[in-house]
Structures are given as C-alpha cells and as structure tokens.
Design brief:
mainly alpha, about 50% helix, 6 helices
Length: about 190
C-alpha cells in the first residue's frame, strides 16, 4: 500500500460498482432449487474477490484513512448482491466490519458512541443512526452509506453497515424477496 495506491484502487472499485454495470452479472442470481443450498454460497465471482480484497486492504494495513472507503465499497457491494455471496466472502465481511468497529472502539475518547448529544435538538431522545430506520432524512442520505457524514467516522459507519448486513442476511434466510427495499432502511 505504498503511496496510497490501495486507497485509489478501492475508490476505483467503488466507482465501478456505483457508476457502471460492471458487477451486475455477479449480483444476479437464480435460485435453482428450493431445497438445496443457494448457488451463491459456493460460487466465487469477481464481486466476491473484490470484496475479499477490500476487506484485506483494511484489516492488513490497519490504516484508519482507508477504513471509510472500504466500508462504503463493501456495504454497497453486499447491498447490490442482496447478501448472495460466497460463504467465505460473508465471513470476510463480518470480520471486516467487526475489525473496523473495534479498532475505533479500542481508542477511548469522547464522541460517538460515548456521547450522542450531537443531534439532541432534533428529537427528545438521543438520535442514533443505529436505531434509525432510514438514512434518507439525513443530509446526503440515501440507501448507500457513501457520502453520508457520521460523527463517529468509519467505526460508526461499520456498525451501521453491520446492521444492514445482518438485516440482509436475515431477509435472505427468511425467504423474502431480496429485491424488496422493505427489508432494510438504515
């Protein structure tokens, strides 16, 4: 990761993911059997490999400056695939989110998650993105975490992405329509 080339590569992958249809063939799936395992759990696609590499970039370099870009890419990729990724990729994603969250939580400081008063004027209780059902009410908010400011930085974005990840996986296990947007709103 000399000279920021890893960060530039992650940002390039994010552009490919969000601005083109490059990964779309990897995200489309067809359930072949209702009784057997989903094909996505054992196939390995370019999207799977990209997610695994981005997770490794963050966890192996442990550079905080890379975390947020990596969280944005991984969360958008998981959302695009509807959680239908290789089993090993799902493990990479879980480990990555926990790593980023715990990396930030291991440094005692003020601010999120220790202090939630940054938004107390808007509601009578402390508003927290983890409890919110939708990002759309926040400036720059949409279904993507990309471009949304979080006072807790990458660790807070990772916690929210983990919430989304679990929600997507539970929806997938529950057999709901994976294309439905009702299964998750951060």
């Amino acid at each position: 990761s000399q000279g920021g080339s890893a960060l530039m590569a992650v940002e390039g992958l994010t552009s490919l993911l969000n601005e083109t249809n490059f990964f779309l063939p990897d995200a489309t799936y067809e359930v072949t059997s209702m009784n057997g395992p989903d094909e996505s759990s054992f196939r390995l696609t370019l999207l799977d490999l990209s997610i695994q590499v981005v997770c490794d970039v963050a966890t192996s370099s442990a550079r905080e400056t890379y975390f947020r870009s990596c969280v944005d890419f991984v969360s958008d990729a998981v959302r695009l695939a509807g959680g239908r990724l290789n089993d090993r990729t799902l493990g990479f994603v879980l480990r990555f989110y926990l790593f980023v969250f715990y990396f930030g939580a291991s440094v005692p400081s003020s601010g999120w998650p220790f202090e939630k008063s940054w938004n107390e004027d808007e509601s009578p209780v402390f508003d927290d993105y983890l409890l919110s059902k939708s990002l759309e009410k926040y400036p720059g908010g949409n279904l993507s975490l990309n471009g949304v400011y979080f006072p807790g930085g990458a660790p807070q974005a990772a916690a929210i992405a983990l919430k989304e990840f679990v929600s997507i996986l539970l929806t997938r296990v529950g057999g709901e329509n994976p294309d439905s947007t009702s299964h998750f709103h951060v």
